[in-house]
């Protein structure tokens, strides 16, 4: 068991004075290439990171199975709420006990409650249960801790209640929980990556057909590592900028007479002009880059893969115009430190960038970026170094 899974088990013992029946965990993710392609019906290529959210699940026992503090907290919550309680949830990170109900509360419990809501909406029976959570995916940092907690919950409940739901269907269910219950509009990438990734592999996802294919990404064998730089730049403008980009893409697709920009070709682009041309050029070339990148990985050609990462960044910076000085500075420094590739990852407007670099060079890059950011008065960045990790797993 991983340390984070042991923490979830320990919390279960402390809260419920019993052993859990099922232990599962699911990772966060990072997108390697394929940005702003998802809502254009195109391709993305994420992999799982090493940080995970773990969950321990068991049946609701007798009152004797609750410790004193837990029992009284629960009773006071029950006294306030009128909703039917379907179970008990505890977060070791928030040190908070929450009843499992069908009502949104704006807390961390919305994510597991959303998964139960989605399971029930699909006609699955979810009897009473209790669960404890522990995670080390940084919250709100762009590594999708929300998908990790959803995926861990869904997989654990599938195992505990013998629901027999496929990984893909669990991912769609988790996306519904996030879209419709939590109320955050997101594509399928995060949940697919968390549930379907494999260690030493990336996941090529067709966002239109929802087909997914594992692509080899054995960086350890090649002496390479991935570095994520969270620039800590708040993404306040992201919602408006993001919606504007989506609308421009829809207009461009309409002007070209295609359903989505995924169906457009580079040769079509000269029928567009101005902003529509720039935005569409990014999407059309980025989609092609994702497929080329997957091809490069199938031949273990990390040099070509890295070249495509740099090209993706330039396209996001110049044509899609979603980069920031901090993200550009990271990518420029990565190039100076001979990273094979680097690019902003996520929607842009702040957030994270990623570099693929020789393992022994990672620390020097990190130090240099820290110094450079401090010198320019940028926020203090946070770094994560990792190998492509395993997707969601039931570990016991
Ligand atoms: P992210 O980019 O990390 O997905 P979100 O805002 O979408 O950011 O999701 C973060 C939320 O997910 C947290 O505020 C919390 O409600 C929930 N969450 C993530 N990890 C945990 C955890 N270990 N324990 C409890 N809740 C968690
Ligand atoms: Mg999220």
Overview features:
396 residues; alpha+beta; four-stranded antiparallel beta sheet; 11 helices; 42% helix; 21% strand; binds adenosine-5'-diphosphate; binds magnesium ion
Summarize the structure in words.
The mean pLDDT is 94. The strands form two sheets. Strands 1, 2, 3, 4, 5, 6, 7 and 12 form an eight-stranded mixed β-sheet that branches. The chain has a four-stranded antiparallel β-sheet with strand order 9-10-8-11. Helix 4 packs across helix 5 and helix 8 runs antiparallel to helix 9. The chain has 396 residues and is α+β, with helices and mostly antiparallel strands. The protein is built from eleven helices and twelve strands. The site of magnesium ion has 2 residues, from loops.
Provide a short characterization of the protein structure.
The chain is an alpha+beta fold and 396 residues long. The chain is built from eleven helices and twelve strands.
State the helicity in percent bands. 40-55%
Distance between the termini: 8 Å
Mean pLDDT: 94
Radius of gyration: 22 Å
Proportion of residues in β-strands: 15-25%
Shape: globular
Which structural category fits the helices and strands? alpha+beta
Instruction: List unreliable stretches of 5+ residues.
Output: none
* Small molecules held by this entry: adenosine-5'-diphosphate, magnesium ion
Order of helices and strands: HEEHEEHEHHHEEEHHHHEEHEE
The biggest sheet amounts to: 8 strands, mixed
Number of beta strands: 12
Number of helical segments? 11
Which secondary structure elements does this structure contain, and how are they paired or packed?
Elements: H1 3-16, E1 22-33, E2 43-58, H2 68-80, E3 87-91, E4 96-100, H3 110-121, E5 129-135, H4 145-160, H5 167-182, H6 189-196, E6 201-206, E7 211-216, E8 224-230, H7 238-256, H8 274-298, H9 302-318, H10 325-336, E9 341-345, E10 352-358, H11 362-375, E11 382-386, E12 393-394
Parallel strand pairs: 3-5
Antiparallel strand pairs: 1-2, 1-12, 2-5, 2-6, 3-4, 6-7, 8-10, 8-11, 9-10
